[in-house]
Design brief:
This protein is an alpha/beta fold. The protein contains eight helices and seven strands, in the order E-H-E-H-E-H-H-E-H-E-H-E-H-E-H. Helix 2 links the parallel strand 2 and strand 3. Helix 6 packs parallel to helix 7.
């Protein structure tokens, strides 16, 4: 049975897609699929997050998108405003399990944070992770304010009986400020889970070949890379 890993974040626009791509790239040699349950903010035909993961990680990645809503809003709100059916957790779980029959690793990338609503009944990515019994990788910002948001996300996971596999910094500045440097030490403490990597700021602008070649250096061995926690 394939490994299924859910990727969430402490918020939006913090690097979930590049982290997902890095994990996919570090799994080279394995059959990898990325599943985006709800893509918002894009018109039909525009490349979405799943396609971006495939571009960055290389041709060995299967990209699947379950639903697309044009306005850049939470999935439940975007679906309602578009007059379209929302994505349901059981649909996410069924799609991931189907992909798992044909791949070695399935990455499920959420939209926004863990508890962003999929539908008006309050279903979330956490519900899909629970149906899958899948661990969750948390992507967090580097700087000031990230500790509280990471602690809240980890607490929400524990309250639902979900495993936090670890935390990855989604965009580490080339010259980290004091808060970013200290957070390297503090993030695993507040998360109760290891820090498993740091993707450099701007990595998403690399070509697919360069990104795939470098990705392993941004992730810890638990995610298929060679990265180790830097000393302060």
């Amino acid at each position: 049975m394939a490994t299924i890993l859910v990727v969430t974040g402490t918020g939006t626009e913090i690097g979930k897609t590049v982290v997902t791509a890095a994990v996919a790239a570090a799994a080279r040699g394995r059959r990898v699929a990325v599943l985006k349950p709800a893509q918002t903010g894009l018109a039909p035909g525009e490349p979405g997050d799943a396609a971006e993961v495939a571009r960055l990680a290389g041709g060995h990645v299967t990209a699947v998108e379950l639903a697309r809503f044009p306005e850049p809003l939470a999935p439940a709100t975007a679906a309602r405003r578009a007059g379209l059916a929302p994505v349901r957790p059981h649909e996410v779980a069924e799609a991931a399990e189907k992909l798992a029959t044909e791949h070695d690793l399935v990455l499920v990338e959420g939209a926004g944070g863990l508890l962003v609503r999929f539908d008006d009944e309050g279903a979330t990515l956490a519900d899909a992770a629970r149906l899958l019994s899948a661990p969750v990788l948390v992507v967090a910002p580097a700087g000031l304010g990230t500790l509280n948001a990471t602690a809240l996300t980890a607490e929400a996971l524990r309250a639902r009986g979900l495993e936090c596999r670890g935390v990855v910094v989604g965009s580490m500045p080339e010259r980290p400020d004091l808060a970013s440097r200290c957070n390297v030490e503090d993030l695993p403490v507040v998360a109760g889970a290891p820090l498993l990597g740091a993707v450099p700021a701007g990595a998403g602008a690399l070509s697919g070949g360069d990104f795939a070649a470098r990705a392993g250096g941004w992730l810890a061995p638990e995610l298929g890379g060679t990265w180790t926690v830097p000393s302060l």
